[in-house]
């Protein structure tokens, strides 16, 4: 049966809705695919549901090829497994929590690692049962602080999440590759441009991790890449570490008075005026070591101050620092933090270490001190002396201070060298559309998923997790397939194969259109039929352009000459085709 | 591609799981269709998901025939619409509630009347847009006090809920009938025995309401029916009201001392001993009026005592009384309630009314008094005198007391006459599998869903709501299609069309089985292939019987003679069929 526009639950909007921030959101609302229910929470209308079902079908097909088996978990799950793995706490306010009538804790699961692990534990006992890869396509909930851009970052979204279970690391590599290959096939079939970037494990824990990013200005992830194929997300980018310098014969550190130099720029000016560079060049910000005080909040709620030293021409990048201290969160220290730590002389903080040499008599502190990878032994810096209005020259790493650790603390910039030697990188923006991830044994260990190996010994299973955002993918397709008139769906996810429009008031036209529609349906085309007797051709064409079915057939005045118009929504081309040839023309 | 048992995520259980209370639950667990996650919350394994998808496909087809269009709402919804209609409060602790990070209230929707109403309000404005019928197949959550019987009464379940929108009452009748007819077709296709019973509106409000009950001992609903086609649920059963009796000349009421007669039985004994019946027969419990004190809890939390008078041979049925006072809840009065109301002389309570004559000097009370429909004017009763150790004879309705109202207060019994005159009813137990419901204008009124009528006047839309429990239906099918060996699925919802078993160790058998499987798949049969090389025939046959695919092909020893066995799981019949004739034999 064709879907008739006279009957379809649809009302297209002429105006852009005020709530829409990005193209996909605007067009999916205007064309009647979705409707907002609450911030980041949407209902799916008939057109949207059709596209979603088609995207899901493609994913299911490729999961089957990859040997993954479909199961389905509820969104509502008990707290206990998530407490065992620590994620109940780690997710903080990012998940929805609730209690049942017996006061038991539940959550709306953000992902399902824990319960898949327990399911396999419940069912399987032997290495012979493995490998197995399970997946579901399921509605997920996360209490995002800033839901935005329609489906691109919602609080409710449909996700395909898969989990693999292997006995060996080599097995995990195979399972990982099978999902990774499936993702490449899925995105290729959906015509989605993507970059596979090395990702950092973040809150999930584990080893190999790659994100599929769709490059787009509306994306909220930054990533780096270069023409030689290097790609990583900003958190995973590793700084190229310079060679260290022998300490022998390096000039001694020298403290000097430096009134009114609380900023890097004022300090550089002051030093250029008062302390000539030995080679005669100007001092620059890159010669200074900027020491920034930050506050970690650990899972148990305790707050710990740390300091991070990085070259003065670089900016602190909290998202990169957070990786080093995950699951703790990181923020700038407050005035109150400084007030409580008298040894921290704001504006004049210098390097120190708890274990190594300390510079400045008053700098004894319980605050751990970390450095950027560029701060290798033998590098000498202009930096704070931990005394009010005092700085120091030739403060040398490995001699005057030894850090408590090295962390990626700085921003990544256009032109920074890629860690694999493939040359300078550029910065791009992207939207995460998939993620493949070697979890390793973290979850199996925590939840006791062990099987008997060939020797009858219990071994812990190793796992991977693999996610695709179904509704986000749909939005990205909409974001990249449109023009000023509306959506232009790729054929394999369009809500219908063909959109047939009957125009005018002539009964014969509608009868001929009915016949064409019936023939198309008989040939297994899914047809949207604009049979509205009172809508003008302009309204019908406008709706067709907005809805975005890629092939449109207009039955109208040409009928007296035995022809209809076949309109390619993407190219805009309209061609007269004899009625008898419509089917062969489409195929 | 066939599904291979060597690969399928499945582990059948030999023992009945302790948690299973009913057959369907036991077999769905043992055969690896579902797994418990929390009380009343289940995960779906590959076999279960296949059956569920087939049930859903049948429902979708019949919804399309009925002209209903599919949409999809999230489970997580904001409180506000549910507050406007009062359901946020009415559901009490029966729904899951939660707050987001901004402290806004949300619920996991038990049903979606409110948001469907708002969606149509958002999209449609004119009578020309109507009627429209929308539905979804969606995972719902209810915080049941006593989840039980596996999928039969879960806290999470999949439901098809449809909502119709019409301008006129006649339109609603048509929409209602279309869904009702669709339900009859769905249950017929699923081979489900059902009775359509008149139901009471209960908490939903509205007019016409019918439940589809599947008669089963494990059902939790009682209903009444008779051979003439009358059927109603117990709450909707209406008592046949006897004719009233003229008051003239009836004997006067007479108070008597009645020590130690706090129960109906002791009272009847006492009266038979001390007060002969005028006709000489024995007094019976049916001659007494039992007055029961109950406590209503209103939505706003206030507690109100009421008293209900009914013949002493009847039992109070709270579920029927609750209908009269919905959305208030009803329970028995406590000792504390009696203590606070000195006029209520426990064990000797008699009738009274706030407006009418009062029997007994101390009985002045603020407690409203209701009677059962059998207590018509002119009926005379032995009843309490509202005085300690005092009862009265010949207390006559309409003369000695006038009730504040008539309500259905008594239990329904085998042999009670049906209200339509069709004769005595019997009591049966059933499981609700569908519900069709004329909501009328309640939701549209509350949420402001109005459209312009033909005269340009705003009119309130009238609605229906129609629900089918998808996962419950699946469980009912399992409950009614099994034997001591396992499940026996009807063909159209079986997880596979054919289950092919290769037996023994002979390579040639497995090769021949592969060929048969490939031929079946080519002929569009969905095949489960037991290709496990090391499992014994006994294990394979046992698993096949447990899993319950209705047609089984055994490839084994007969192969040397060119035959396989075709096994009908339902009848148990096994027949030798030449390999070349397998396909034609199946079709």
Automatic annotation (TrEMBL), chains A, B:
Enzyme Commission number(s) of this protein: 6.1.1.15
Highest taxon of source: Bacteria
Predominant localisation class: cytoplasm
Domain Aminoacyl-transfer RNA synthetases class-II family profile, chain residue ranges per copy: 48-490
Classification via Gene3D superfamilies: Anticodon-binding domain, Bira Bifunctional Protein, Domain 2, YbaK/aminoacyl-tRNA synthetase-associated domain
Keywords from the named record: Aminoacyl-tRNA synthetase, ATP-binding, Cytoplasm, Ligase, Nucleotide-binding, Protein biosynthesis
GO terms assigned for molecular function: aminoacyl-tRNA deacylase activity; ATP binding; proline-tRNA ligase activity
A Pfam family the protein falls into: HGTP_anticodon
Transmembrane portions of the chain: none
One term under GO cellular component: cytosol
Known catalytic reactions: tRNA(Pro) + L-proline + ATP = L-prolyl-tRNA(Pro) + AMP + diphosphate
Keyword match Protein biosynthesis: yes
Subcellular location: Cytoplasm
InterPro entries attached to this UniProt entry: aa-tRNA-synt_IIb, aa-tRNA-synth_II, aa-tRNA-synth_II/BPL/LPL, Anticodon-bd, Anticodon-bd_dom_sf, Pro-tRNA-ligase_IIa, Pro-tRNA-synth_IIa_bac-type, Pro-tRNA-Synthase_IIa_type1
Any GO BP: prolyl-tRNA aminoacylation
Free-text note regarding domains: Consists of three domains: the N-terminal catalytic domain, the editing domain and the C-terminal anticodon-binding domain.
Database matches in HAMAP family: Pro_tRNA_synth_type1
Assembly behavior: Homodimer.
Function: Catalyzes the attachment of proline to tRNA(Pro) in a two-step reaction: proline is first activated by ATP to form Pro-AMP and then transferred to the acceptor end of tRNA(Pro). As ProRS can inadvertently accommodate and process non-cognate amino acids such as alanine and cysteine, to avoid such errors it has two additional distinct editing activities against alanine. One activity is designated as 'pretransfer' editing and involves the tRNA(Pro)-independent hydrolysis of activated Ala-AMP.
The family this protein is said to belong to: Belongs to the class-II aminoacyl-tRNA synthetase family. ProS type 1 subfamily.
Record protein name field: Proline--tRNA ligase
Gene designation: proS
